[in-house]
Structures are given as structure tokens and as C-alpha cells.
Amino acid sequence: MIFTQDPNNELNDILNSNSYSSVFVLADDNTKKHCLPLLNEAVLQKISGTLTVNAGEITKNIDTCIYLWNELNKRGADRHSLLINLGGGMITDLGGFVASTYKRGIHFLNLPTTMLAMIDAAIGGKNGINLGHMKNQVGVVNQPDELIVFPGFLKTLDRTNYLSGYAEALKHGLIKSKDAFQKTLNFANPDLESEQFLGFLRENMAIKEEIVSIDPYEKADRKALNFGHTIGHALEAISHKTGKPMLHGNAVAWGTIAELFISHKQHSLDITYLNQTTELVTKYFPEPVFTSEDVNDLMAIMQQDKKNFGKKIRFTLLRAPGKYVIDQIVSEKLIHESFKHLKSLCQS
Amino acid sequence: MIFTQDPNNELNDILNSNSYSSVFVLADDNTKKHCLPLLNEAVLQKISGTLTVNAGEITKNIDTCIYLWNELNKRGADRHSLLINLGGGMITDLGGFVASTYKRGIHFLNLPTTMLAMIDAAIGGKNGINLGHMKNQVGVVNQPDELIVFPGFLKTLDRTNYLSGYAEALKHGLIKSKDAFQKTLNFANPDLESEQFLGFLRENMAIKEEIVSIDPYEKADRKALNFGHTIGHALEAISHKTGKPMLHGNAVAWGTIAELFISHKQHSLDITYLNQTTELVTKYFPEPVFTSEDVNDLMAIMQQDKKNFGKKIRFTLLRAPGKYVIDQIVSEKLIHESFKHLKSLCQS
Questions:
Q1: Which chain B residues have any C-beta within 8 angstroms of a chain A C-beta?
Q2: Nearest CB to A21: which of B103, B141, B309?
Q3: How far apart are CA B166 and CA B172, in angstroms?
Q4: Over the stretch B245-292, which tens digit does the pLDDT of each residue have?
Q5: pTM for the full predicted model
Q6: What gap in Å lies between CA A57 and CA A65, rounded to an integer?
Q7: Is B78 exposed, middle or buried (0-12, 13-18, 19+ CB in 10 A)?
Q8: SS3 B45
Q9: What is the rounded CA–CA span in Å between residue B9 and residue B39?
Q10: Around B143, how many Cα atoms within 13 Å sit in the side-chain half-sphere?
Q11: Is A316 exposed, middle or buried (0-12, 13-18, 19+ CB in 10 A)?
């Protein structure tokens, strides 16, 4: 991973020192407009073409892959070409999958532009697309040739976007240690140019990097990263069905509350961590919208979770910050209680 | 790799000793009818379901993948499920890709039923699908959990099918050694139950196994396996356009003649090998159908070959049997000559 205050030098070096037959950028409307222009002429002139897709999670589907595979083909991309994924998690997930499967795999490089992508999606080689309403049902695990993190891109985004990534940072704190969690609480609304923030960003990314280097294929430890995501993914999926899509991190923030609640009930997690997280999440993150009638749908969505096996919903839970337990079965009753608990925290 | 005269014991052991959450078979109409019944009750009762697709290369496309991903999802396949690919190269290519990408990868096992799949397609972890008329444009390299070769399946097939795989065996002989090539010449029309044939099959598969174990990602030596395929793939692709599809191996057999011709002209390959191969191929393999007007289309198809880089068509060629040279550029003039040479060997 390269953490840099100027991605141009790094990119220039990479493009000069590798003999790529061609170089393509994958961007969405937003990153094409706001991020691509931050690259300098020396870099831009080495780029053979830009592939642009619509922004938004809904674009992360098989039709977009077909479009991109064909487009790469038309533009003469071969096995020695490079794809630069310039965008948030949607772009790094989509572009990583397209590059990993085009002609059985070409070079790709992640240049994340959002907090979520920097801290989470662009690290660790998981990529993929959604299949209908099912998140990331199709994909592979394949590390990018390089990950270049340029925090300057964060200035192109609004608070909502920052918070969506910050939810994953909070999760990283919880699975790492009490200290890491307490530190994370200070950065819900940071000065993006401060040394403190840059230090925090680097440390927090390192939490994910360490876990995925130990367990790239999610046999055990990598499952820690799923904390907050079993319920988070269900909230996110149902919000897409109702036509009021939640940002991924927003769903994860509320999923984290629910799974801290379950951890408290089932594994005696100290209630302090639930309370501190609840205070922060209810202050900063928009509420999930679901009714008691939706709970059966939420359960059905969780039944489809990739992390399950043996037809049981599997959770990662916490005994304490840093003390995670994986593959936990939770009773339907307790899952229902956790949804009621979320509901009790909502105004609407 | 398991080479066996009875796949039931082996399959039973594998299904008993692994705790798969569910087991699915991918078959086509033909293998469902003729091969699946060769498995015994003990094996069949451990299978959760059979996914059936139409036989034929045309099925190897993204729409079939979407159908299969959705079907696996509907039937509750999770990350601990196993997919058994029961079929020829189309099925092992398709099933390998679907299994490698469903939920970012589930277990899969190849149980090849044709000569082509046993000797080539099911070995080495390459999988993928066609994109429009472009062969194997989308896929990954991912080894199956196991490869079980049961030569008894060959008895379910006709001579045409045998020959399609035999063309790859011929190529293996050519890239291995003079002796291996001479031996291969004896098995164009073998007794499938003879010890000699079983020995030949095993030795010939070992040629491919050895190369892919040295170079799984085709950085260098694995390219030897592409001998005959640059022109072979083009002949195959154009035959699909004209509505008279050639079997893969049939196209490769004629592609092998063309590339032996080029090897003779460009790398002084002894003409004996071209002559011996020509005699065998013209005797056993149906002629390719193309006109001099098709040559530009054939060139255009070769321009799209995955093996190319730097916008040049790249060939694997031979100085002698066992002495291959990779990434060779050939003049357009010599490629045209090789097509003329093929034409001169055809009756029509």
C-alpha cells in the first residue's frame, strides 16, 4: 500500500516502470468529474482511455460487467493492460472483478476516492457484484497490483459520504482493541487536513491490512471484519427494495448497534461499548427505515448471507473490543429482539 | 488427479470425508442422460441437486452463468457447497467459472466425460466463458479441488468426439518430444479398453499436468500449450459465425497443420512432422470451411487473441518436437500463406 499526499509521482513511477500495453481508468460520473482532474498531465497522457459508468450501488451488476468486458475488448485491452479503479467501493469492487476476469485476469490498481473505499473496500482483494438484490453474490478474491491511498480525494466529498466509511473505521476499532475503539470515537467529524486525522486513517487501514494478510480467504480471522454486517447488509438490502437506499456504511453503523446488542446479551459484552456506539451512531447516522412487517424479509435476506453454512445464520460477535468470536449462531428470538432494540432508538 | 476404473469409490470417499453443506452436479442434457446413471446409489443419494444446461459450446455464455448463480442461490448453495462438473470441456469451463465466482468461490471438482476434457480442458484450472463470438474472454485461473478421470465415460461417445480430444493429445506429443509425438500417432483410432490406450492417456495427461504445475498463470512455459491454437481458435470462431460450428479439437487439428507449416518456414522445423501430421489430420478430421474472403475475418479474430500483447498476434512455434518457442511474431504474409496451404489440402 502507498499512502501519499500526491498520487501523481507514484502513478507516474508505476506507469513508467511497467511495460503495460495500455492503461485504462474506470470511473463513475462523479470521480470522472471531481477526481480525475486531480491527476496531472504527465499521468493523464499515459492513459489510453477512460471507462465511465453511472455512480451508485445499482450500477454494480452483471450488465455493467458485460458492458465493460466488451468495451475493454473493443479498445484493444490485452493481458498486459492495466485498469486503474478510480472511485469508491462500488468502483473498486466492480473494477476489481472485471479486471480479474477479463481474459482470465489483467493488472489492476485501486485508487480509492471515498473514506469507505480507502479504509475498507479497496483493501484486501475482495471484489464482486450484486446479483439482483443479493449483495456481492458474484466475485473473486484477487489482490490489486497496488493500492494508492491519497487522502486529498476525501475533500471532494460531503459529510454523508465520510460517515459511510467512518462506520467501518468504528468496526475496525471495535475488533482491534479498547484503545483503538476509544480513539476512533474522536474522528466522527474530523479536520481532514490535520496530522491527527492522517495518523488515524493510516492506523485504521492497518487494522484491516493486518487481518487480511493473516487470512486472505476468510477461513477464520477475516470473519472478524463481518462484525455489524450480517444485520447491516440486511438493512441495506431491504432499503434498496423499498426505493430509499441506505449508504452501506450507514446500514453498517446501525447493524453494529444491533450486533453489539446481541454481543451484550449472548457474550456479556460490557454495555458501555453498546452505549458509546449508540450515542455516536444516533447522533450522526440517519435512521434505518423498516417496519415490524419487514422483519421477516430481513430474516430471509440474512438466510442468504455468504457467511452462513449449514443453513444457519452466522454472526461475528464480541466478548470485548478486540475479542471477537466467529461463526456464532444466534436464536431467532434474540435477532428479533435486536431489531426491536433498533426500532426503539428510532424517532420514526 | 485421480485416474480410476470406478469413480464411485473415489467420489464416495470424497463426499464422506469432507463436510460439504450441499453437493450439486452440473451436467448437460447428454451427460445427464449417459454419464450420471454410471454413478451408483451411494453417490447419488449424497447429491442435493442436478443443474442441467443445453449441450454445446453456445451454452458457455454469461446468460448461462446468471442462470446457474441464481439457481445455486435458490437451492441454498453456500460457501461450503461442492459443485461437481460432469461433462466435456464446455461444462468444466463453465462450471469452474461459476464455482470460482459464486459467493467469491465455492468448492468444485471436475469429472470429465470426453477425451478433450480429460486430456486438456479439465486439467490446469483455466475456466471461463465466451463473450459473443470471442472464446474464453471472461474467466479465471483456479484449480479444482479434485480432478477424477474415469476413462469409462469415453465409451458413451462417438468417434468424432474422441478425435476432438485426440487433436490436443497430438499437440501434447509435439510439444513434449519426438518420441511422445511418434507414440501419439498410434492412437487416432484406439481400442478404448486396451491397456496400451489407458497407458497412453495417462502419459499424455501428465504432459499437460507437468507444464501447468511449472507455470499455472501462463507467464512462459504454459504458452507451449497454445501451439496450434492461434489459427485453430480463429477457424473455430469463424465456423460459429457461418453457422457450421467446428468442434474445438477439429479446429485445433487444422490449426496445428497451419502452425507446423509456419514453424517449418520460420524456424526450420523438419518437414517430416508437418507431413506426418498432415497425413493423419486429413485422414481423420473434417475439413475447415472458409473462403479466401474469410481470411481478413480470420486475421481480425486472431488480433483479439488473449495471448497477444503490444497489438501483435503472438504464436507458439516449434523448432523441433519438444523445442517450443513462445511469443513469436509472424508476418501477415506468412500467416496468409499458411491459410493458402490449408486450402490446398482441402477437397472443397
A1: 21, 62, 66, 69-70, 73, 76, 78-80, 100-105, 126, 128, 131-132, 134, 136-142, 217, 304, 306-311
A2: B309
A3: 10
A4: 898 899 999 999 999 999 999 999 999 999 999 999 999 999 998 988
A5: 0.91
A6: 13
A7: buried
A8: coil
A9: 10
A10: 12
A11: buried
Beta-sheet strand order (sheet of A2-3): A2-3, A146-149, A107-112, A82-87, A23-28, A49-53
Q: Which residues contact B339 (CB under 8 A, 6 or more apart)?
A: B231, B258, B290, B295, B298
pLDDT of A207 > 90? The answer is yes
pLDDT in the model for residue A242: 77
Q: Which of B121, B129, B231, B135 is nearest to B165 (CA)?
A: B121
Q: Are strands B314-320 and B323-329 parallel, antiparallel or unpaired?
A: antiparallel
B209 contacts B1 by C-beta, under 8 angstroms = yes
For residue B10, is pLDDT > 80?
Answer: yes
Chain B neighbors of A108, CB-CB under 8 A: none
pLDDT in tens, A222-281: 999 999 999 999 999 899 877 788 988 999 999 999 999 999 999 999 999 999 999 999
Bridge pairing between strands A82-87 and A23-28: parallel
- Point out which residues pair with B87 in neighbouring strands: B112
> Is there a contact between A91 and A26 (Cβ–Cβ < 8 Å)?
yes
Higher pLDDT, B115 or B305: B115
pLDDT grade, residue B134 (50/70/90)?
confident
- Which pairs count as long-range contacts for A185-188, CB under 8 Å and 24+ apart, including other chains? A185/A276, A185/A280, A188/A163, A188/A280, A188/A283, A188/A284
The 10s digit of each residue's pLDDT in A85-94 is 999 999 999 9
The SS3 of residue A198 is helix
The pLDDT of residue B305 is 76
Question: B302 with B330: CB under 8 angstroms?
Answer: no
The full set of domains in chain A, from first to last, is 2-157 (3.40.50.1970), 160-345 (1.20.1090.10)
ipTM value, please give it.
Answer: 0.90
Contact A51, A25 (CB under 8 A): yes
What chain B residue is nearest to A74 in terms of C-alpha separation?
Answer: B304
Interface contact A140-B105, CB threshold 8 A: yes
* Under 8 Å between Cβ of A159 and A190: no
What's the residue count for chain A?
Answer: 348
Q: Taking Cα atoms as reference points, which of A246, A223, A220, A225 lies closest to residue A298?
A: A246
Closest-CA distance of chain B to residue A181, Å: 30
Among positive and negative, which fits the CA dihedral A41, A46, A49, A53?
Answer: negative
Closest CB from B69, B137, B309 relative to A137? B69
